[in-house]
Structure formats: structure tokens, C-alpha cells
Amino acid sequence: MLSYLLFIVFGTVVAHPPTHAFAVHQVYDFPNPGSWIENLAVRSDGHILATRLDVPQLYEFSPLIPNSKPTLIHAFPSTAGFTGLTGITELAGHPDVFAFIAGNFSAAAVRTKPGGCAVWRVDMRQRTPTVSEIAHIPQASVPNGMASLDAAEHAVLISDSTLGNVWRLDLRSGAYTVAIDDPKMNKVRPNATESVNGIRIFGGYLYFTNSDALFFARIPIHANGTASGPSEIVAYAVGKGLMFDDFAIDDDGTAYVATGNGNVVTQITPDGRAAIIAGNLNSTELASPTSVQFGRTERDRRTIYVTTAGGLEAPINGTVIVGAQLASVDLSW
After folding, report:
1. What angle do CA 111, 122, 116 make, to 5 degrees?
2. C-alpha distances in angstroms, 94 versus 42, 43, 98, 153?
3. What SS3 state is found at 311?
4. pLDDT tens, position by position, for the chain (333 residues)?
5. Sequential DSSP letters for 219-242
6. Quick check: 180 and 225 in contact, CB under 8 A?
7. Alpha carbon distance 31, 300 (integer Å)
8. Measured by CB atoms within 10 angstroms of the end CB, which terminus of the chain is less buried, N or C?
């Protein structure tokens, strides 16, 4: 997510050729290099909400309408003290209401400035969306991925990529506490910029990526989001030095993981087999992918949508960056 802030290069990156290459379709490219889409959430009507990391802005896309342009849903003023947005998730039991993270990210140190992070709510149920604050979480360092617990819990889980843990935030009271602090969520290198990154809940497990340790893992959880057993590694990245980011999980448990510095999407089966299925290390079609989600309509249920940082995480061929992208990959054939 934030690796570009310090322009750190994780050794030599070697991406294996795709085992089965699916075509990538560009839904929208921001015209300005230097833009960064960090994460996305898909609405039930097929529209997509996406967070920008380079600016504190939330956009909506209409991927099923050809040549459509994104709509700015909300932009925080400079007086709000936020410089970018990260994770976003739909709230369980509240269709079309989403929580997202806003932070004041420092380029001098990969963390938010003191008191500079908050979770906000965007209600998309009315013609004019409303945005309101849920809670400040000043003890968080780099809150990144987010996943909603069951509706009865009224809570979300938030990964902290610097502290290497997962927070639980109560949506009603605003109280937050560390839900999971597992060694596999920690950094491997002391100077690494990220550890635990994307998180998703599936089948009684919290699945997560560790960008520094280069693996995809899971840990069983209770309904309240705390661990109910030991964690386990599901799969490592296919190519040398490739770093996993956020991801989507299909109904059968297959994961599709944004692999940012490889410019690819990696497929990981439930039994741990990993293969690159879209993108290419030397191509701009998926320039530093950051997150993945499945479509939710009959037209696009077998399509994954991929957001990108435009190559900011790792410039293509060492020099090329483009505008942030929303791309689609049809998995139906």
C-alpha cells in the first residue's frame, strides 16, 4: 500500500509467466500520473466505490456503462487534516452503507501523524450520499484493510500495516481494541514499510496478506473477531520478491490477490496452489494493482475488478508510471 512513500525497492522482482492469462479490460484510467486508487467496494447495483490514497477523495464508478466517467462522492477539505483514504467495506446488516478509512499519512515515516486517522461512514441509500464520522482511532499507525463482522457484532476489523495487528472497532460506541496480534502478521525486516495488509472474512477464518513476508495466510476467528486458533500460511507469492496486497475470495474459497510490484493478479486455490492469471511485470495494463473485488450483478458475477496505483509502487521497467486505473478481468471462460 504505502511502499512508494519511501521509494523502497524489495530486491529483484521476478514474475513467472501467467499459467492461464485472462484478458484485462480498462474500465477507467485517471489521466494524471501520480494518482493512486487504494481500495474498492462493489455496490449491489453494480456501481463501485473506490478510495484514493494520493488525495482524500472517494469516487463512484459505473463499470457496466461503457465509457462512463467516475463521480466524486466526497472530498475532504484540507482543514480536515486527511491526506488519503485506504480501506473500505460494506457494513453487514446495512446494505449500501459503507465504512472507510481516512488518514494523515506522513511521507517521512510510514505511519499516520498523531491523531490523524479516523473511520467514516458513507450512506449511499439516498440520491445524495451522506458522509459522517464513526470514530477517531489515534493509536492506529497505518490502518489499511477492513472487513465487516456479522451484523450482530456491529463492528469492523482493520489491519494495521505498521503495527502488524488487527483492530476491532465498535460502530456504535466508537471504542476500539486489538482483536488479533499474531506473529504471522508482523514484519520480517525491521525497516519494512508494511506487514499485514489486505483482510477478508470467509468460512470462519480471517484471511490476510503479509506484504513483507510475501505470503497469503488465514486464522480462525470467533464471531467477535478474536482468534479462535493458530494461524497458517496458505501460499507464498509465485515470483521472487512479489508482494501481496488486497484480495477477493470466490464462493469456492479461491482467492484473487493484487500483487502490486509484479503488476499482476495471483490466483490462490483453497489447497494453496498459486498462479498468475492476469497482468505482466513489464506491462502497464495492471500498473501496481492494489485491490480486487468481484462484481455483484448477473452481468459481472464472474468478473473481478482491480484497482491500481498506476505504477507508483514499482514503476514499470523502473521508470514508467501512468494514471491510477480501474480494470476488469472476466473469469467466465
Report:
1. 20
2. 14, 12, 8, 12
3. coil
4. 654 443 334 445 555 556 568 999 999 999 999 999 999 999 999 999 999 999 999 999 999 999 999 999 999 999 999 999 999 999 999 999 999 999 997 544 445 565 589 999 999 999 999 999 999 999 999 999 999 999 999 999 999 999 999 999 999 999 999 999 999 999 999 888 899 999 999 999 999 999 999 999 999 999 999 999 999 999 999 988 999 999 999 999 999 999 999 999 999 999 999 999 999 999 999 999 999 999 999 999 999 999 999 999 889 999 999 999 999 999 997
5. EEB-TTS-B-S--EEEEE-SSBT-
6. yes
7. 26
8. C
Asked whether 243 and 259 are in contact (CB, 8 A), the reply is: yes
Q: Are 49 and 41 in contact (CB under 8 A)?
A: yes
Distance CA 220, CA 175 (A): 23
Separation between Cα atoms, residue 60 and residue 49, nearest integer Å: 5
Gap between the Cα atoms of 181 and 189, Å rounded:
17
Query: Residue 203's CB: how many other CB atoms inside 10 A?
Result: 10
Cα separation, 257 vs 274, in Å, equals 10
Q: Can you tell me whether residue 70 is helix, strand or coil?
A: coil
Question: Can you read off the three cell numbers belonging to residue 316?
Answer: 514499470
